[in-house]
Amino acid sequence: MVAAAAALAAYAAWFEPRRLVVRELRLELPHWPAALAGLRAGLMTDFHGGAPHAGEDAFARWVARMNEAAPDLVLLGGDFADAHFLFGGRLAPEPIAERLAALSAPLGAVAVLGNHDWRQYGTRMWTALAAAGIPVLENDARAIDAPGGRFHVAGLADLRNRRPDVGAALARVPPGEPVLMLAHDPDLFPLVPDRVSLTVAGHTHGGQVALPYVRRKFIPSYFGERFARGHVVENGRHLVVGAGLGTSGAPIRLLAPPELLVLELHPCAVS
Q: What distance in Å separates the CA atoms of residue 102 and residue 96, rounded to the nearest whole number?
């Protein structure tokens, strides 16, 4: 029993946090045009740079694997840095942004900031990403011109440290044009209107230690398990929550390995 417990602890503290799973999901979405069918959106979130297992070499590996997956666009869901009292500040915004600048998606990358970014670095993280050519959205939207037509990425402010405003985020998106919503925290999903084809988020780490019944009270969400991880559909509205790449607090993962998501977007099948 002691040996088994020691082996499990070693796995959770060393092996699983250094794993990397690439998950590909095919999604059929409302209000997504046939002309953009098959567009591939990568999702990278919750890096927690500077924490154990999340140094510059890890960023380089994550970026290389995302590039291998060949997404058309990469959505960056925040918590680039870590704000833990021991680990915060161990990796500055500038080298983080420099590593992420190596993403090679033809439609580029778009980011929002997370609660750890604001707590540790504030606007310095925003400035570093922008200087590396990665636009940061906060209650704003960006038009993306793809070969099949134009769509928009709207980004929300962090729920814990800023003031998210869904109306402001969508204000510059013309009615009827396709739009993806990028948020750090999935707790904002109930506020997102039907016109949005897909909301993507992170923050929960999939529970990080995802033991059944145990993880529930540790998931940083007001909704418990409801938005813990994966593809969620509620009343015809779609959400994808990534389990993230780094660790928050204790540098361990169990049953929630670091993951990159590649989402292949299609219109809803006609019945």
A: 11
